[in-house]
C-alpha cells in the first residue's frame, strides 16, 4: 500500500514526474491486471499509467535460493538484481520500498542516482541479536543453535558483521523514511544515518468508521491482519488460541473463531500457510481457525466488522 499510495501522491502533486516500478512479476501479468489488483485491494486509483520494468533475477532474493546464511545471501542476490534493474532502466531518483538496502549503493555509485529508502522492518534488528545472545529460540534462531554455546557465538558474530554491512549500505541513502518509532529506533542505531523521517503507513479509517458495530450472534471473532511472514509468528498465535480454548467449556469454545487475514508474497509464504493449517489441525483447533488469503479491501472490512477483537 505504501508504494501505490506514494505513487498516487506523486502523480497528484508533481505532474512532470514519471513513475517506473521494478517488478519481479512475470510478463504475463499485464499492467492493467496489476492496476486492477491495486484498485481492488487498496482502493487506490492512479491518475496516470505507471511503467513496469520486469526483472528476471527475482529468484536471487528469494529465501529458497539461500537455505543457509539467508540474509547475507539475499543481500548478495539483491546486488545482482539491482545491477539487472539498472541496466534495464536508469532513473534519476531511486526509492527502495522492498527492504533491499544493499541495492542502494549500486544505484548511487554506479547509476549516479539520488537514493531513498522506506523501511518497514529492519533486515536485522537489535531484538534479533539479543535473542541470539540470550540463547532464545525463535523463528530466526533454531532450537539447535540456541542450545549450543559455540553455534550461538558464531551466529552472534555473523549477525554483528551483517549489521555493520547493513548499516554501511543504509547510510548511502540521501533520505531514509521509516514506518514507526520502533523501526526508527532500530534504524537510527544500526545505520547511524541522518535525515531519518517517520512516515506512518497510509491508513484511511473513513470506511471503517462507517462499519456497523452489530456483532454476529454469539460468535466471538478474533481477526489477525498481516502478511504470512516468519516474523509475524502466526504459529504463536495458534498456540495461544489452543491454550485459551482449553480453558473454555466445549460449548463456549464453539463460538470462538480466529481469522488470519493476509497476503502471500511468494511460494515460501504459501507453504507457510499450508504448515499453519497443519499446525491448527494438530492442535485440534482447525474448526476455530479460518484463513483468508489475498482478500480484497471490501472482504477485509467485512471480516473486521464482524469481529469482537483484533491482533
UniProtKB/TrEMBL annotation:
The keyword Membrane belongs to this UniProt entry's keyword annotation: yes
Residue stretches making up the ALG11 mannosyltransferase N-terminal domain: 1-191
Keywords, ordered alphabetically: Endoplasmic reticulum, Glycosyltransferase, Membrane, Transferase, Transmembrane, Transmembrane helix
Protein family: Belongs to the glycosyltransferase group 1 family. Glycosyltransferase 4 subfamily.
Protein name: GDP-Man:Man(3)GlcNAc(2)-PP-Dol alpha-1,2-mannosyltransferase
Catalyzed reaction equations: an alpha-D-Man-(1->3)-[alpha-D-Man-(1->6)]-beta-D-Man-(1->4)-beta-D-GlcNAc-(1->4)-alpha-D-GlcNAc-diphospho-di-trans,poly-cis-dolichol + 2 GDP-alpha-D-mannose = an alpha-D-Man-(1->2)-alpha-D-Man-(1->2)-alpha-D-Man-(1->3)-[alpha-D-Man-(1->6)]-beta-D-Man-(1->4)-beta-D-GlcNAc-(1->4)-alpha-D-GlcNAc-diphospho-di-trans,poly-cis-dolichol + 2 GDP + 2 H(+)
Major localisation: endoplasmic reticulum
Domain called Glycosyl transferase family: residue spans: 216-308
Membrane topology: Single-pass membrane protein
Function field: GDP-Man:Man(3)GlcNAc(2)-PP-Dol alpha-1,2-mannosyltransferase that operates in the biosynthetic pathway of dolichol-linked oligosaccharides, the glycan precursors employed in protein asparagine (N)-glycosylation. The assembly of dolichol-linked oligosaccharides begins on the cytosolic side of the endoplasmic reticulum membrane and finishes in its lumen. The sequential addition of sugars to dolichol pyrophosphate produces dolichol-linked oligosaccharides containing fourteen sugars, including two GlcNAcs, nine mannoses and three glucoses.
Any one annotated GO CC term: endoplasmic reticulum membrane
The protein's annotated pathway: Protein modification; protein glycosylation
GO biological process: protein N-linked glycosylation
EC number: 2.4.1.131
Enzyme class: transferase
Location relative to the cell: Endoplasmic reticulum membrane
Record-level Gene Ontology MF annotations: GDP-Man:Man(3)GlcNAc(2)-PP-Dol alpha-1,2-mannosyltransferase activity
